[in-house]
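Re: the request from the purification team.
They wanted to know what the chain is likely to look like in 3D before they choose a buffer screen. I agreed to run a prediction and write the result into the notebook, where they can find it.
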Amino acid sequence: MSAVRRVRALIVDDSAIARDLLERGLSLDPGIEVVGKASDAYSARDKIVFLKPDVVTLDVEMPKMDGLAFLRKLMPQYPLPVIVVSAVTAEGSRKALEALEAGAFDIVAKPSAYDAFGLKAMVAELAEKVKAAGRTEPGKIRPLAGGLARPSPSAGRPAHDRRFRGRPVGKVIALGASTGGTVALSKVVTALPADSPPVLIVQHMPPVFTRMFAESMDRQSAVRVKEAEDGEELERGTALVAPGDLHLTVVRSGRRLEARLDDGPKVSGHRPSVDALFLSAAEAVGPDAVAALLTGMGRDGADGMLALRRSGARCVAQDEPSSVVFGMPREAWENGSAETLVPIELMAREIMARVGARAAGRA
């Protein structure tokens, strides 16, 4: 029996120290072979042509040509899976989100240079994403039309309709995603109507990135999109995104439904965790919840969705052809919690139909 082929990775970073650290860390994984390193975009292009890596790790802030510009030139010619390794700063986060829009596979946040534990955790996370990217079918990762992270002029922003705020909540929509989720969530949230039931979102993403991601979707959505705040009331026409490194859950307080944030232990290996959100929704919302589990590595959300389904909630998952990584949706399908698999282009319509179907049935 032949050995499993290792994923061939190329490291692109202008820092020699970062290149060496990533090479040593990734080379410890028996499933990865680091075939080369490059200090800038021009060297990277030559090495991609000659070394033919399966996956590229890319720093977005580099001299000569930054990683974002390089990615936009690379994808039409060599549509390789690219994992962005970015500093957790406002500028680094903005560029990383634009890189996802341009077709990057995923992002990993650089820790502080003095955080040895953070560095070890980052390399472990990067290794898992490199292996997942190496198994991704060509053509799965496509640029997002419409400009997810690009600032838009104020005149082009939707006028969020405040008439729906303060009305009875009724239903609650819960969404969970990981790898490929920024593009998938953007397609769903921007298609929701202004009077949508409140939406709660968990996307596996570091701090700062989540705030900018929420602001990006807000610029294009009929619903108001923002990072969740602890204790705020759920309102129609508003979508709340879990802040990076904090769990988002929902609780019932009298007649109100409120968002709760906490920095408790990771659930299913993540903080924020989709399972944490879904389990809380099963308890606080039950049959008035509609949940969707979107593209992502691993199985976070599958157990929580099963609890939701048992509570009477309506549950769907993204189908394999439209998922960048059919991990989390597959787990929900296989454990029987997802009622059906839905292409991402039809997901918003499916969610609203189930919101309407439940309301019509009760009426």
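For the purification team: The domain at 163-362 is CATH 3.40.50.180 (Rossmann fold).
Please add any questions underneath this entry.
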